[in-house]
Amino acid sequence: GLPIANQVYYKSAATLSHLLIVAGLGADGKVWPSSNTPQGRCLYQPNVRPIPPENYLRNFVVCAPAVNDSQPGSPDGYNRGWAGTSFASPHVQGLVALMAEKAARLGLAFSPTWVARTIKETCRPLGPPEIYGHGVIDADAALAAIK
Q1: Of 90, 103, 115, 116, which one has the fewest beta carbons inside 10 Å?
Q2: How many C-beta atoms surround the C-beta of residue 95 within 10 A?
Q3: Which residues touch 83 (CB under 8 Å, ≥6 apart)?
């Protein structure tokens, strides 16, 4: 079979409603040059042409800060700032943890699909979806949506 990383490309968007793809934002508020982007790429199924709009990556992309210029120093003295999309994903993971905590406290059902939909619906738009997907995550709005 296919490696797991490639299997996502053979699923329809309907089966991936829980998927969030994180794009990192630079200090200038623009998508980090080497970040994931929704431009022209899509999830597809073999022998399905044209690609249905619901499979465009822009439907799954959310943005988060990818630059942190002030990291605490490590024991070996390395204390330069960190940057890149690897530093954007933890912002989304932290938001998911906060959402899980609030939902549990309120006794609400919590599913990956619900989380992804809530995060995407509460993002602050930054510009064209082809570049920024749903926009930048908004923790206050996402947490306020949990009632």
Answers
A1: 90
A2: 22
A3: 26, 32, 66, 67, 68
